[in-house]
Amino acid sequence: MGLSLTGAEPSTAGDLGGPSDWGRLTAQAGKTEILQKDAFLREVWAELAVAAGTEGAYRFAEQVALLWVRPDAFAVGQARAVLV
Question: Beta-carbon neighbour count of residue 45 at 10 Å?
Fold first, then answer.
Protein backbone atom coordinates (compact mmCIF):
# COMPACT_ATOMS: atom_id res chain seq x y z
CA MET A 1 0.00 0.00 0.00
CA GLY A 2 1.24 3.54 -0.73
CA LEU A 3 2.39 6.11 1.78
CA SER A 4 -0.17 8.39 3.31
CA LEU A 5 0.34 12.01 4.35
CA THR A 6 -1.90 11.43 7.36
CA GLY A 7 -0.64 7.97 8.31
CA ALA A 8 -4.05 6.50 7.46
CA GLU A 9 -4.60 4.03 4.68
CA PRO A 10 -5.77 5.89 1.53
CA SER A 11 -9.46 5.51 0.83
CA THR A 12 -10.89 4.74 -2.58
CA ALA A 13 -14.53 4.53 -1.52
CA GLY A 14 -16.72 7.57 -2.00
CA ASP A 15 -13.90 9.95 -2.89
CA LEU A 16 -16.31 12.58 -4.20
CA GLY A 17 -19.65 10.87 -4.31
CA GLY A 18 -20.71 11.57 -7.88
CA PRO A 19 -20.75 13.85 -10.89
CA SER A 20 -22.46 16.76 -9.13
CA ASP A 21 -19.57 16.92 -6.65
CA TRP A 22 -16.94 16.59 -9.36
CA GLY A 23 -18.42 19.72 -10.93
CA ARG A 24 -17.19 21.74 -7.95
CA LEU A 25 -13.63 21.13 -9.17
CA THR A 26 -14.02 22.64 -12.63
CA ALA A 27 -16.11 25.08 -14.63
CA GLN A 28 -14.90 23.58 -17.91
CA ALA A 29 -17.58 21.64 -19.81
CA GLY A 30 -16.80 17.93 -20.13
CA LYS A 31 -13.94 18.07 -17.64
CA THR A 32 -15.86 16.20 -14.91
CA GLU A 33 -15.86 13.03 -17.01
CA ILE A 34 -12.09 13.28 -17.44
CA LEU A 35 -11.54 13.95 -13.73
CA GLN A 36 -13.61 10.91 -12.74
CA LYS A 37 -11.31 8.64 -14.75
CA ASP A 38 -8.06 10.09 -13.36
CA ALA A 39 -6.71 7.55 -10.87
CA PHE A 40 -4.00 9.93 -9.64
CA LEU A 41 -6.53 12.67 -8.88
CA ARG A 42 -8.81 10.20 -7.07
CA GLU A 43 -5.91 9.04 -4.88
CA VAL A 44 -4.79 12.59 -4.09
CA TRP A 45 -8.38 13.65 -3.39
CA ALA A 46 -8.81 10.74 -0.97
CA GLU A 47 -5.68 11.87 0.91
CA LEU A 48 -6.85 15.49 0.99
CA ALA A 49 -10.33 14.50 2.19
CA VAL A 50 -8.83 12.42 5.02
CA ALA A 51 -6.56 15.30 6.06
CA ALA A 52 -9.04 18.17 5.71
CA GLY A 53 -12.47 16.54 5.61
CA THR A 54 -14.65 16.59 2.52
CA GLU A 55 -15.77 20.21 2.81
CA GLY A 56 -12.26 21.29 3.76
CA ALA A 57 -10.93 19.58 0.64
CA TYR A 58 -13.44 21.43 -1.51
CA ARG A 59 -12.56 24.74 0.17
CA PHE A 60 -8.88 24.09 -0.49
CA ALA A 61 -9.57 23.30 -4.15
CA GLU A 62 -11.84 26.31 -4.59
CA GLN A 63 -9.69 28.87 -2.76
CA VAL A 64 -6.11 27.76 -3.33
CA ALA A 65 -5.75 25.59 -6.40
CA LEU A 66 -5.92 27.79 -9.48
CA LEU A 67 -4.39 25.07 -11.64
CA TRP A 68 -3.53 21.47 -10.84
CA VAL A 69 -0.67 20.10 -12.93
CA ARG A 70 -0.14 16.37 -12.81
CA PRO A 71 3.37 15.22 -11.86
CA ASP A 72 3.65 13.22 -15.08
CA ALA A 73 3.50 16.52 -17.02
CA PHE A 74 6.78 17.46 -15.34
CA ALA A 75 8.22 13.98 -15.90
CA VAL A 76 7.68 14.17 -19.66
CA GLY A 77 8.78 17.81 -19.96
CA GLN A 78 5.34 19.24 -20.80
CA ALA A 79 4.69 21.32 -17.69
CA ARG A 80 6.27 24.41 -19.25
CA ALA A 81 3.73 24.29 -22.11
CA VAL A 82 0.91 24.34 -19.54
CA LEU A 83 2.39 26.98 -17.28
CA VAL A 84 3.72 29.49 -19.82
Answer: 22
List for the chain the helix, strand, coil content (%; round to 5): 55, 0, 45
Asked if 11 and 46 touch (Cβ cutoff 8 Å), the reply is yes
Tell me the whole-structure pTM to 2 decimals.
0.61
Q: Which residues contact 77 (CB under 8 A, 6 or more apart)?
A: none
Distances (CA, A) of 64 to 3, 8, 14, 16, 31: 24, 24, 23, 18, 19
CA distances from 75 to 20, 37, 80 (A): 32, 20, 11
pLDDT in tens, 44-64: 888 888 899 888 988 888 888
CA–CA dist 56, 33 (Å, integer): 23
